[in-house]
Write a structure and sequence with these properties.
InterPro entries: Beta-barrel_TonB, Beta-barrel_TonB_sf, Plug_dom, Plug_dom_sf. Its main location: membrane. By secondary structure, the protein is mainly beta. The protein has seven helices and 42 strands. It has one domain: Maltoporin, Chain A (Beta Barrel). Helices cover 5% and strands 61% of the residues. The strands form four sheets. It has a 22-stranded antiparallel β-barrel. A six-stranded mixed β-sheet has the order 2-3-8-9-6-7. The chain has a four-stranded mixed β-sheet with strand order 24-25-29-28, with no helix packed on it.
């Protein structure tokens, strides 16, 4: 469908009325929760049993709240098949089914939101968990959502006007392993204002993460030299890494019913982040000693200080109108969303291995703005035979501006350096001029026009949904780092059919089956046409603005069993065949570093497969008369296969498995509760040209205990109680031939540690 045909499609539906009756469902006042019920509750929250035909797992906030997650990412650690490749005690880019964040669609209130990732992903640590009403895990794509969901969709629904009657305040603090304290304050109120309902939520969260890293580097790998620890030692690096910042967020929603079966909703979500990252690293020429400077016969070779100031602003505002129209129910939505990031980073290093000492300084400025404007219309009709027909249009304009400036300086300094009382930052002059990084100064504009049609049929035992979505995209790329560079334009279109079946075996058991086609659009940094020198080892990267999206046909088959009144257990098997994979290829052109280096270029090349099994269980132990004991278990086994220049591998950084288990024990007579969760994800392997890495994580243990009064709850939570470690083994190569022949430039073992931290939180309802 070309853009010009959209008005004709709107006109065509006006004649589609027939004997169809309007669907008039809307929220009811009795569904609104009283504030005391949210703050002071003795009942344990379990996974909801969603009535969606498409297999959907639904988790209310009560499922997560007892463990006081700070962000949406922290909450989603308890959901099946969600993994992270973050630093210890951080959860940012969700990797549903272990695939990179770009394969997972993140929605806020059903809407896509822009983020900083070049792979179009949105980091979940941007959303405070306190503002979440529920989380929906949609395992397969449907026609009435954007098709960017190869791995699946995570829809984070924020509180709206029908979520709460009354208000509450949450206040407390966090204490970290280095005795640093951070504050945490939230306030939420909901109620009637005029003829409608309003909810306002504010969250102020101190963020902090102190980590210690140790890296051991060798000239060869144990696959070539089993005795590498003694024979090929190169250097050791120790690093302190502190992330220190504050998040402030605001959620506003106003809902107003008017006329007959009509309503309007106004909503806004705002996040402001100010963050500082402080790193101090020392490289030694000995595996354990830290005595003296290398130039004087000691062990310290380099002293490095790397700091970054980060400012990020997110907002999304919109309106939704629901009203009878053309014999059915029409929904109109308009949304404006923006992500703005400014980063100033400076790295200063002094090399003490030779006299005179050498001081090097690098400064980087990152300026990124991502704007999105979207309009949508959908029309639905319900027939007298429980059949629902829905169709609609979606339009979006996106503009992404990015610019990276760098400055470098180098000079000789005196040799009276004392790292105990000085930092390399003390030598910084900031005199060198800034210059734009090639390809990093660009402007990308993208325009989408989508249309969809689906039919749902609900019957006593068998329910089904069939639909198709047609997505048409035009984009242009302007490389601002080159004078007189041409604007490159491209467009593509594709149809995304989907079908879902739900079969009710009996009152407690049902089957789900889905088949759906979905898509993943190319990374922004791969689309920019400029040449980036030494992007992969000593090899250069040439962008390719003519990349096509990856597409996938996926299958999901699941069975779900109800346990008593509130328990549920589910088992799902999934398979994805992904076509037109984007992989790096060797152009054969000599790279900027001379012979044996090359210019690499991303191309649509080959196919891949992803598969796995997912188990989830949440239930009270009523079967053994333990009504006040809830148990939880999620376990996923994940696998995949793809070909690259070096042979077969899994999709990069896909964990082999992930599981979490836990329990909550409520003691009604004393109004207290306690519980714990234990989480572990398997190792992951990633390979690009010039580098291979295997990542493994230690287990994560969390514990809570709470005491409740009439309108007050006090909760103590301990997190990362096992002092989890992140371990990475890097194979590094200078050239493609070196990687093929296993001629190592460097082998590195890195270990990152973060200690436990504790939260004491008080909630007061009013």
């Amino acid at each position: 469908m070309k853009y010009a045909t959209i008005p004709f499609a709107l006109a065509a539906v006006s004649g589609f009325t027939g004997s169809i009756q309007a669907d008039t469902t809307k929220p009811a006042d009795e569904e609104v929760k009283v504030a005391e019920e949210v703050v002071v509750y003795g009942e344990i929250g379990y996974r909801n049993r969603s009535n969606e035909i498409n297999q959907t797992l639904e988790y209310d906030q009560e499922y997560f709240q007892r463990f006081e997650p700070l962000t949406a990412g922290d909450a989603l650690k308890r959901i099946p098949s969600v993994t992270f490749l973050s630093d210890v005690i951080e959860s940012d880019g969700a990797r549903m089914r272990g695939l990179s964040p770009g394969y997972t669609q993140i929605l806020i209130n059903g809407e896509q939101v822009p983020g900083s990732g070049s792979d179009r992903s949105f980091f979940l640590d941007r959303i405070p968990a306190e503002l979440i009403e529920r989380v929906e895990v949609v395992r397969a794509n449907s026609a009435n959502r954007s098709g960017d969901a190869i791995a699946g969709t995570l829809n984070i629904v924020l509180r709206d006007g029908f979520s709460l009657d009354g208000g509450y305040i949450r206040a407390g603090g966090l204490k970290f392993s280095d005795n640093e304290m951070k504050e945490s304050i939230s306030a939420i109120w909901g109620g009637k204002v005029g003829s409608g309902r309003l909810i306002v939520g504010y969250n102020h969260q101190g963020r902090y993460n102190p980590k210690q890293k140790t890296s051991l580097r060798y000239g060869d790998s144990p696959e070539n030299n089993p005795n590498y620890q003694n024979d090929d030692f190169d250097n050791r690096e120790t690093q302190s890494d502190v992330r220190d910042g504050t998040d402030r967020s605001l959620n506003i929603n106003y809902s107003l019913a008017f006329g007959e079966n009509s309503s309007v909703e106004l909503y806004g979500f705002f996040v402001n982040t100010d963050r500082e990252e402080i790193e101090r690293s020392f490289e030694y020429n000995d595996p354990s000693s830290t005595i003296g400077l290398a130039a004087s016969g000691g062990n310290l070779e380099t002293d490095n200080a790397n700091n970054a100031d980060i400012e990020q602003r997110n907002f999304s505002v919109g309106t939704k109108l629901t009203t009878p129209w053309l014999g059915g129910i029409a929904k109109f939505k308009a949304t404006v969303a923006k992500f703005d990031e400014f980063v100033f980073e400076w790295e200063d290093e002094i090399d003490t291995s030779e006299v005179p000492f050498v001081f090097e300084e690098e400064r980087t400025i990152v300026d990124l703005v991502d704007d999105e404007h979207s309009l949508s219309w959908s029309q639905s009709y319900s027939t007298t035979t429980d059949q629902k027909i829905e169709f609609g249009l979606f339009a979006q304009e996106k503009e992404r501006y990015s610019n990276i400036l760098e400055s470098e300086d180098e000079r000789e300094v005196s040799n009276n350096w004392d790292p105990e009382i000085q930092s390399p930052n003390n030598l910084a002059l900031h005199n060198a001029p800034f210059q734009s990084v090639p390809s990093a100064h660009s402007n990308i504009e993208e325009t989408r026009a989508d249309a969809f049609f689906l039919v749902k049929q609900k019957m006593l035992s068998l329910s089904w949904e069939v639909g198709v979505r047609y997505e048409s995209t035009k984009f242009s790329i302007e490389d601002l780092s080159l004078s007189n560079a041409p604007t490159i334009k491209q467009d593509y279109s594709f149809a995304l059919p989907s079908a879902h079946i739900q079969y009710q075996l009996d009152d407690n058991d049902r089957l789900h089956f889905s088949v759906a086609k979905s898509v993943r659009r190319p990374n922004f940094d791969y689309l920019t046409p400029a040449l980036i020198e030494k992007e992969f080892g000593d090899n250069d990267l040439q962008g390719n603005p003519f990349l096509k999206p990856e597409t996938s046909v996926g299958l999901d088959f699941g069975i779900e069993h109800r346990i008593g009144q509130t328990g549920v257990v589910g088992l799902n098997v999934f398979y994805r065949k992904i076509n037109d994979l984007i992989e790096l290829t060797n152009t054969g052109i000599e790279g900027s570093e001379g012979p044996s280096t090359f210019v690499l270029k991303p191309e649509n090349l080959g196919d891949g497969t992803v598969k796995g099994v997912e188990l989830d269980l949440s239930t009270p132990l009523s079967i053994i008369n333990l009504e006040n004991t809830g148990v939880f278990l999620n376990y996923s086994v994940l696998d995949s296969e793809v070909d690259d220049l070096f042979g077969k591998r899994t999709f990069n950084d896909q964990a082999k498995n992930v599981y979490n288990l836990g329990f909550i024990q409520d003691l009604p007579d004393s109004n207290t509760s306690f519980g714990l969760t234990y989480r572990k994800q398997g190792s992951a392997y990633g390979r690009i040209i010039g580098e291979e890495v295997t990542t493994s994580y230690g287990a994560d243990l969390e514990l809570f205990i709470e005491k409740r009064w009439d309108n007050l709850t006090l909760r103590l939570v301990g997190s990362n109680l096992l002092d989890a470690e992140k371990r990475e083994a890097f194979n590094k190569f200078d050239t493609i031939d070196d990687q093929l022949t296993r001629n190592f430039d460097e082998f590195e073992l890195e270990q990152e540690n973060a200690g436990s931290f504790y939260q004491l939180m008080l909630r007061y309802a009013f």
